[in-house]
């Protein structure tokens, strides 16, 4: 211990000078490299968002709604930004590492690790499957961020994040579901392109069925012309058919077209108006 203390005392000036020289030669370059990397990552992500949005809008401006275009562009731009940031981080780390250890060729080291990466990939088949499934989901446009979907028949909610490895959805109770993309084998997208509000009402068998059907169609037409709802409805709610009659009740099915994600709101408003209107005509629901 005494020998080490003596050595440290004798060489203290040399060590501090060496550290000071290293900082003067490398520290500023490292900080500048990191700052430039952060700026490139952020600016590049914003540029990619604009480019992707313009590309999606140009490719689908005639057959997609503005909401569909927005969802698709957000999903693709998020994936592009993630890949871009990972690439910038890797390049920045290599540049910084070569500044700290100039005698080591990190570019060659990273290239040689590619073989190791392939070997690890074979041992991580689940991870590879999740990644490839995520790429196919995004490229095939099965669903987008903001869509309401049902996965595998047991998880339903709004897509909050669509990554290359997993999908995150939030259900009506606010619960978050993390679903690996490789485990997804059935998808029901409830908000792509257009939606239908579809529900049944049961009225008393003793009521005037034809009058009730006229009232339903009239209420649907009036709702579709309401300034608050006309932009949300593409086809006025109307009677689809008398679908069943059981005991004292007759079941009438109602259907109408809406823009994506508005089917539940339109169905709710239609029910509220029907209750009031049918009650006026003494038709028992």
Query: Stretches where pLDDT falls below 50 for ≥5 residues?
Result: none
DSSP strand content: 15-25%
In this structure, how is the largest beta sheet organized? 5 strands, antiparallel
Helix percentage range: 55-70%
- Give the overall average pLDDT: 80
Oligomer: single chain
Overall geometric form: elongated
Strands in their spatial order, largest beta sheet: 4-3-2-1-5
Summarize the structure.
The chain is α+β, with helices and mostly antiparallel strands and 285 residues long.
Structure description:
The protein has 285 residues and is an alpha+beta fold. Helix content is 57%, strand content 21%. The protein is elongated.
Keywords:
285 residues, alpha+beta, three-stranded antiparallel sheet, five-stranded antiparallel sheet, single chain
Outline the fold blueprint.
Blueprint: H1 2-60, H2 66-100, H3 106-123, H4 125-139, E1 148-151, E2 155-162, E3 166-170, E4 176-180, E5 187-189, E6 195-204, H5 209-225, E7 233-246, E8 249-258, H6 263-280
Antiparallel strand pairs: 1-2, 1-5, 2-3, 3-4, 6-8, 7-8
Helix pairs in contact: 1-2, 5-6
